[in-house]
Amino acid sequence: xxxxxxxxxxxxxxxxxxxxxxxxxxxxxxxxxxxxxxxxxxxxxxxxxxxxxxxxxxxxxxxxxxxxxxxxxxxxxxxxxxxxxxxxxxxxxxxxxxxxxxxxxxxxxxxxxxxxxxxxxxxxxxxxxx
Length: 130
Hints:
- Helices cover 58% and strands 0% of the residues.
- By secondary structure, it is mainly α.
- The chain has one domain.
- Helix 2 runs parallel beside helix 4 (95-112) and helix 3 (42-60) runs antiparallel to helix 4.
- The longest helix has 22 residues, at 18-39.
- The radius of gyration is 21 Å and the shape is extended.
């Protein structure tokens, strides 16, 4: 069995295990937070937060943008009659892909905390806004 099939098999087994996946991610976040608390890495944590917040934006935004659907031939996003079928919300980034990417980012950030040259100090007055 090649690597791609093994990864797909593991992915298929992990996908319905919502609670266990996010518990493992929580443990990873706690371990990262402990490393940051003990050793610093403020700038690395800032970039980690920015990338995760970008992913959250994609998770919460719709795949179909109603502002771009202006053609009269295209079906309406919102129901116009009582008999119209309800169209479910389809996110740009599905939850499982969001989880996979967040874990990859956390693992990379955690590995980067073991490189001392990346422990750049955060300048508090720049972050404060004065």
